[in-house]
Amino acid sequence: MGRAHAQAAVDLGMSLKAICDTRKEVRDNLADDFGVAKSNCFSDAQEMFDSLGGAELVIVATTADTHCELVCLAASSSSKAVLCEKPMAVSVEQCDRMIDACEKSGTALAVNHQMRFMPQYALVKKELERGELGLLASMNVVAGCFGLAMNGSHYIEAFNYLTGTWPSRVSGHFTGEPFQNPRGPRYFDQAGEFLFISENGQRLKLSIGHDQGHGMTSMYATQFGHVFVDELQGEMIVTARLLEHQSQPMTRYGMPWDRKTIAFPQADNVGPTREVMSALLQGENYPSGGNGKKIVASLAAAYASAQKSSVLVSIGSNDNSDDQVFPWA
């Protein structure tokens, strides 16, 4: 995971000052590939910061259960900025600690939710801003079993990017058993059906069941049309009711329409991460620690709903879920 981040930093003209990884082989390979002195390779993060101090940018590209400790260490070393992988942490309380530590030290904190820098979302936003589609009513994701925390978290960020709002309520239904993340035997995620609703009624639906084995598609339903996106194929189909018929009621769902297809390049791991880094270093338009916390709170509420027969649960309500620790990678 860290190799793509290192390449993104180098692409921005930065050089790696140090590497920390518990695996010697990984440290040595990265050091050789990116020109880092072996004396600046560490197996312990505290030792690294004690030896070298802070940096212009610290990248935390580890599993989620270590994010809080490492981000707080980076902040205490007076690092200027930290890019943390997603999900931000394994509890809402940990998110609060990370945000507080960075605020006290003046460290800028970003979470690597890259959706605003990816064409499949930027193009949808452009189509919505043209006005011909009207307001976005719902964002409907149908995909393979890619995990609520591992990838579903990204779509909560995308929903905020496209609507300017955050979910306030969620209904969650788990399908199948928790499944193991390939990053280790103690990491598990959930599959299922999830409905997130904002205060103004806009909806994000995730259909990511345990028995769904392929694809990443999104259907954006609007007042006057819809946008279908096949994210893996790199194809978008935009359908909009003709302007002269937009005064007709919503029940006239078969009015004449225009239709167009837009192709976009498939995203890689390096490019969007590079854009997040660049925005963080410039101090504007990056997914902040506050964003990361809202996403973790949304995930926690989805778990709470699934454990209560899928009732709607208010996100961020005082139900003791802030302290719950999840087995996410």
Automatic annotation (TrEMBL):
The keyword Lipoprotein does not apply. It comes from the Bacteria. GO terms for molecular function: nucleotide binding; oxidoreductase activity. Keywords: Oxidoreductase. Residues 2-113 form the Gfo/Idh/MocA-like oxidoreductase N-terminal domain. Pfam families: GFO_IDH_MocA (PF01408). The keyword Lipid metabolism does not apply. This is Gfo/Idh/MocA-like oxidoreductase N-terminal domain-containing protein. It comes from Thalassospira tepidiphila MCCC 1A03514. The lineage of its organism: Bacteria, Pseudomonadati, Pseudomonadota, Alphaproteobacteria, Rhodospirillales.
